[in-house]
Write a structure and sequence with these properties.
Shape: elongated
Oligomer: single chain
Helix content: 25-40%
Strand content: 25-35%
Order of helices and strands: EHEEHEEEHEEEEHHHHEEH
Distance between the termini: 44 Å
Number of helices: 8
Largest sheet: 7 strands, mixed, barrel
C-alpha cells in the first residue's frame, strides 16, 4: 500500500557542525556550511486525518530511518531533473497538549533537509523563507491499513471509515512501515495539520505509467471499484431504512453496526425480508380517518407515512 502524506516545511535553520557531518555523508564532495541551506519538514503525524486514516507512533518510528537520504522533488514527478533537496536526519517528536482523536499523545515525524546553494535554487530558497513553498507531500508504503473497530485489514471488513459503531469511531491504522520513496513540494494540503493525499497499489500504478494501455485498464478498474462501493453504500442505507421502518426495536447505531459487517449478498437478502415486513406494516390500502369517517389513501397521503 502506497501512502502519500502532505505536510509542512519549517523555515531555514543554522547549519551545525553535526548537521554538516550528516550532510557530507550523503554528498560526493565535502561541503562547507556556507554552501548549504537547511530547513525542517513535518512529514506526517499520528492524528486521524480527513480520510480517516492515521500513522500510529510505531509506524512513524519505522518510517523515520527510511526517509534519511530521500530526495525532495515537485508534485511527485519522479524525475531527476526535479530533485531540489534531500533529507539528512529524522526524528519522531512527541507533542504536549490534548490527546489525538485515537486517544494517545500526539507525535510527528520531523525531517531535516538540505539544499546546495546555487543560482538556480536561489528563488526556491527565498520562497521557503517567505512561507510560499511550505507544504510538502511524502510518499511511502505500509503493509496494511487495519480497521480500528474490528482489527481486520480494511479490505476484509465491512466497517466504513468515519462512521461510529457502538461509540467507537472507525478509522484505518496504517501499520508496518515498508519503504519511503520521496517527498515533494506541493500546493494544497488536505490534512488539518500535515495534509494528506494517498495513493494505493504502487506497483500497478508504476507499471501503468509505462504502458498507456495498462493505465487505461487500471483507470477503468478504479472507476468500477468506486461504482461498486457507491452501490454497496446505497444498498446498506436502504436496508437500514427498511429495518428502522419495520419496528425491530433496535437503535439506529446498532442497525448500522450490523449492516456495516455484511456483504452485497447478505444485504440483498435482508432487503427482501424487511421490504416484505414494511409492506405488511404499511399496507397500500391503509385507511385514513377524517372526522369520524374514512377515505382511501391517496398518493399525496403516502408521503406522510414514515
Amino acid at each position: 500500500m502506497k501512502i502519500i502524506k502532505e505536510a509542512n516545511t519549517g523555515g531555514g535553520c543554522p547549519v551545525q557542525e553535526e548537521d554538516l557531518a550528516l550532510i557530507n555523508a550523503l554528498a560526493r564532495k565535502e561541503l562547507a556550511a556556507e554552501e548549504v541551506y537547511t530547513f525542517t519538514v513535518r512529514l506526517c503525524d499520528n492524528e486521524i486525518d480527513r480520510e480517516w486514516e492515521r500513522f500510529p507512533e510505531e509506524t512513524l518510528e519505522g518510517l523515520a530511518p527510511m526517509f534519511v537520504g530521500k530526495s525532495g522533488i515537485f508534485d511527485h514527478n519522479w524525475s531527476a531533473l526535479g530533485q531540489a533537496a534531500r533529507i539528512y536526519k529524522t526524528e519522531v517528536v512527541r507533542e504536549e497538549g490534548p490527546l489525538t482523536r485515537a486517544g494517545d499523545p500526539g507525535c510527528y515525524l520531523k525531517g531535516w533537509a538540505y539544499m546546495v546553494r546555487t543560482e538556480g535554487n536561489r528563488d526556491l530558497i527565498a520562497e521557503i523563507e517567505g512561507g510560499i513553498k511550505r507544504e510538502v507531500s511524502v510518499g511511502c508504503s505500509v503493509e496494511k491499513a487495519v480497521c480500528s473497530v474490528c482489527g481486520l485489514p480494511l479490505e476484509e471488513c465491512h466497517h466504513v471509515k468515519g462512521r461510529t459503531y457502538n461509540g467507537t469511531l472507525c478509522w484505518g491504522e496504517l501499520v508496518g512501515a515498508k519503504d519511503a520513496y520521496e517527498w515533494s513540494f506541493v500546493a494544497v494540503p488536505a490534512q488539518p495539520r500535515a495534509g494528506v493525499i494517498k495513493g494505493m497499489t504502487p506497483v500497478l500504478k508504476a507499471l501503468a505509467e509505462e504502458k498507456p494501455e495498462a493505465r487505461r485498464e487500471l483507470e477503468a478498474l478504479e472507476k468500477a471499484a468506486a461504482l461498486g462501493r457507491r452501490y454497496l453504500e446505497e444498498l446498506r442505507g436502504e436496508v437500514v431504512r427498511l429495518m428502522a421502518m419495520s419496528r425491530t426495536g433496535l437503535e439506529a447505531d446498532v442497525i448500522r453496526s450490523m449492516t456495516g459487517k455484511l456483504d452485497e449478498e447478505e444485504l440483498t437478502a435482508l432487503k427482501t425480508v424487511f421490504q416484505r415486513q414494511v409492506e405488511e406494516t404499511w399496507p397500500r390500502g391503509a385507511q385514513l380517518s377524517y372526522r369520524g369517517g374514512s377515505r382511501e389513501q391517496t398518493a399525496g397521503d403516502r408521503a406522510f407515512l414514515v
